[in-house]
Specification:
The radius of gyration is 25 Å and the shape is elongated. The chain folds into 2 domains: about 5-35 and about 40-95 and about 145-190 and about 300-320, no CATH class; about 195-290 and about 325-335, hypothetical protein PF0899 fold (2-Layer Sandwich), CATH 3.30.2320.10. Helix 4 (about 75-90) packs across helix 7. It has 11 helices and 11 strands. The strands form 3 sheets. It has a 5-stranded mixed sheet with strand order 5-11-8-6-7. The protein has a 4-stranded mixed sheet with strand order 1-9-10-4. A two-stranded antiparallel ribbon has the order 2-3. By secondary structure, it is of the alpha/beta class.
């Protein structure tokens, strides 16, 4: 039976594990609304409709609409979390380089690692009754280092209560974008230097010092074998050199770049601009098996303060770390003057 309009909302819902949306879905499943006018809305969106709170568009309500009742005030932290998450997703390139994302409840986590030798990578014929080669998968020696990234929201309720919600959302999205950029730097650092388990990326030597050539890209492609070189990460100066190569001016690469802005190299690898990478450096990887993202919960904030309209000095953060899965699936190409 659908009863979204009679649910009692309270602070304690944020302490039950998971997000408020997940708690609401357990109490009021969306499957109960199939075929109704509320089909397509999740449990949180139905609560916004219940209290007639419009969070977007030209006619979005003011922030104070959340605080007209004690029940509707309980929806405010989830709105903040969703807005920050939108900012993270909008500015996030992590999905382009991670192979897996793991959500944990605590702060201690050991990833699994498999670092096969060249002989183990080759699936040789096995005679009848002979020993079958094995692939060793083990837990890493050291814990994944988790980094807490976030911002502090400093604003009085009086300063924002008359602001439109969609305008306030812009500020929250920028907090999310900041978190995403810092997490990307953390991921790149692990790709280059390893995750603390003696697994830094191998450096491939350039054929001609101080100058990048198409032959160097082919050398990188060959070194990463038997993994697939499907992603290249490069800073601004290297991006300019790559895009100026004659090989990047072929019809297919040109059409993709001019039509969609998506950059694909002649060797078939996606080219991603990462300004934080050191100059004269390219990171090549197989995104399907190189990196694991480990996240402790979701977007964390002081829910009690937000519900009680104590916006001053509210922290908004996200804790995550990265682990290498197959170290040989990442190589670095460096060249200098």
């Amino acid at each position: 039976m659908a009863f979204y309009d009679s649910l009692k909302l309270e602070k304690g819902m944020y302490g039950r594990g998971g997000s408020l949306t997940e708690v609401l879905e357990s109490l009021d499943p969306s499957e109960n609304y199939i075929g109704s006018e509320l089909e397509g809305l999740d449990a949180y969106q139905r609560q916004l409709k219940r209290f007639d709170i419009k969070v977007g568009g030209d006619r979005s309500d003011c922030v104070r609409k959340f605080f007209e009742t004690s029940d509707s005030a309980a929806l405010f932290p989830e709105y903040v979390s969703r807005a920050v998450k939108q900012g993270i997703d909008g500015a996030n390139r992590l999905n382009d380089i991670i192979a897996a994302r793991t959500i944990i409840d605590g702060m201690d986590y050991r990833s699994v690692v498999s670092d096969p030798t060249e002989d183990e990578k080759a699936l040789k014929p096995v005679a009848e009754g002979a020993y079958i080669p094995q692939t060793n998968v083990r837990t890493s020696e050291n814990l994944v280092k988790l980094m807490k990234r976030g911002r502090m929201l400093v604003a009085s309720y009086e300063a924002v209560k008359y602001q439109r919600i969609d305008l306030f959302t812009v500020t929250l999205r920028q907090i999310g974008a900041y978190i995403a950029r810092e997490q990307l730097k953390d991921a790149v650092n692990v790709l280059i230097n390893g995750d603390g388990n003696s697994n830094p990326a191998e450096v491939v030597t350039c054929g001609q010092t101080g100058k990048l050539s198409y032959g160097d890209l082919l050398s990188l492609w060959g070194k990463i074998n038997p993994y697939e070189l499907n992603t290249l990460l490069a800073p601004t100066d290297v991006m300019k050199e790559l895009l100026a190569m004659d090989e990047m001016k072929d019809s297919r690469a040109g059409l993709d770049f001019q039509g969609t802005g998506k950059m694909i190299t002649p060797i078939g690898a996606s080219l991603i601009h990462i300004p934080s990478i050191e100059e004269k450096t390219i990171i090549g990887l197989d995104k399907s098996c190189a990196l694991e993202m480990v996240q402790s919960g979701g977007v964390i904030m002081d829910t009690d303060k937000l519900i009680d309209r104590q916006l001053e000095r509210v922290t908004i953060s996200c804790t995550a770390g990265f682990a290498k899965l197959f170290p040989d699936s990442v190589k670095i190409l460096k060249y200098s003057e």
